Amino acid sequence: FGVQSNVRMGIDFKLQVLDILGTELSHNLQQLSEKARSTTEFIQRLKGMSDKVTESCMEFERLVHAQCEALIQAIHDRREYLLEAIRMDKDTKIRILKEVYCGKETICTVDGLHFNSMYNARVKAFNSAGEGEYSALIGLQTAEVAWFTFDPVLSGGAGSGLIFSKNNATVSVEGWEHRVALGSVGFSRGVHYWEFTIDNYTADTDPAFGVARIDVARNKMLGKDEKSFAMYIDRQRSWFQHNSIHERRVEGGITTGSTIGVLLDLERHTLSFLVNEMPQGSVAFRDLYGVFYPAVSINRGVTLTMHTAMDAPKMDYF
């Protein structure tokens, strides 16, 4: 009896130990499972953080690029403003001292005067005995509005492919490549308005209207380089374009007989367009400083006539 009791007690003790070990093992396995799950979640969080870091870096790169572009544009605009101020100051000083003609003729033509401006002039005579005194100043008032035509020479000469007629007021071209025609005067101040009449529009093409620097690319659509500011238009809609960036699509196109108005306001330094005497969108371009020439680009199937010496329409600047 004593031996059997000892055996049963030994077996019970072993079973209790196994139960304890099993419970502890189950607990440890549960802890390991929780740690594995926590580790998996941590790895997922790390991966998410990596994606967010990549996205944030890309966004920061885009932001820096945009801010650098804006800074470059601001520097460019400021440079143009300062150069224009220097030119105007130079013009003021030259107007005080400039001698425009010396010779035997009693009549002379002075080129390069601004429109709607007052100039003072004086003359003096001289002969073999010497020079006389200057005359009293007389005031010369230039025309209030600008009269000009296309300039075949500025537009590239005989090799341009452009065909001018009606005293250089009408232009067309035979080829399919765009060609730029420039006006005969450049503007640096004042408010100026001119119109184009579409005499012929038979092709599926986009004539472009606007202004350009004297060194604009003459074998591209107007607005394709940094030297020109334009609106190009077809039968249904138009876009504004500068330096090959076109934006702000506006519904409303042209046909034969349509008119395109160009308003260059160098007091506000803006450029606006009208189609059939109605504004085509809001102000197209701002911060325009320097000298700008009236310009248009066309290709085959388009003939247009330019009308100048026109009063500027009243516009809402928005």
Automatic annotation (TrEMBL):
Residue ranges annotated for the Fibronectin type-III domain, each copy included: 49-145
Gene Ontology annotations of biological process type: axon guidance
Sorted UniProt keywords: Coiled coil
CDD domains membership: FN3, SPRY_PRY_TRIM67_9
Top-level taxon in the UniProt lineage: Eukaryota
B30.2/SPRY domain boundaries: 127-314
Keyword Coiled coil in record: yes
PANTHER family: E3 UBIQUITIN-PROTEIN LIGASE TRIM36-RELATED (PTHR24099), E3 UBIQUITIN-PROTEIN LIGASE TRIM9 (PTHR24099:SF15)
Protein name (record): GL26617
Gene that specifies this protein: Dper\GL26617
